[in-house]
Amino acid sequence: MRSPLWSVRKLLAHFAAVLALGALAACSPAFLSAPAPEVGAVAPEIRLQSLQGEALSLGDLRGQVVLINFWATWCGPCKLEMPAIQARYNDGGFAVLAVDFNEPADLVQTFVDDLDLSFPVLLDPGGKVQELYRVRGYPTTFFVDAEGIIRALHIGEMSADILDNYLARMGVRP
After folding, report:
1. If pLDDT is split at 50, 70 and 90, which confidence band does 174 have?
2. Which member of 18, 77, 104, 108 has the greatest number of CB atoms within 10 A?
3. Is 138 in contact with 77 (CB distance < 8 Å)?
4. How many CA atoms lie within 13 A of 145 on its CB side?
5. What is the CATH class of 34-169?
């Protein structure tokens, strides 16, 4: 005859298995199937709608250096770094994909208008692309080379000097 302790252990083992399966089911397919983006790896594809309703993708920018900036309107450091990104974007030599986190288009448009941003701003309903890129803080910026390889990752606010340093390493000169 088995002891009552054996039954408790078996019950706990089943409970742990059910919890583990539930946790896996809660993860999105993108999170489970794709490796985390890292420096030296191919940047995961992005295909999102811009504020103007145009479908834009990272693949369409192959052959160009691309700055992918993940941000939100409520993020103070995001707001502080946007003018530096805009100024360097005006100089040319690279593309920008600014991916907003799951916010209403009218709120994002107000933010863009207030800062007079002219680079493409993409909407990420549900945060699927941010999940794919494993964004855990704002702002987060990936620098992708002309071949689609991630060459640098910066988490946190970038000053103009920091931004210029990353771009120079990518071969983009002011």
Report:
1. confident
2. 108
3. yes
4. 13
5. alpha beta
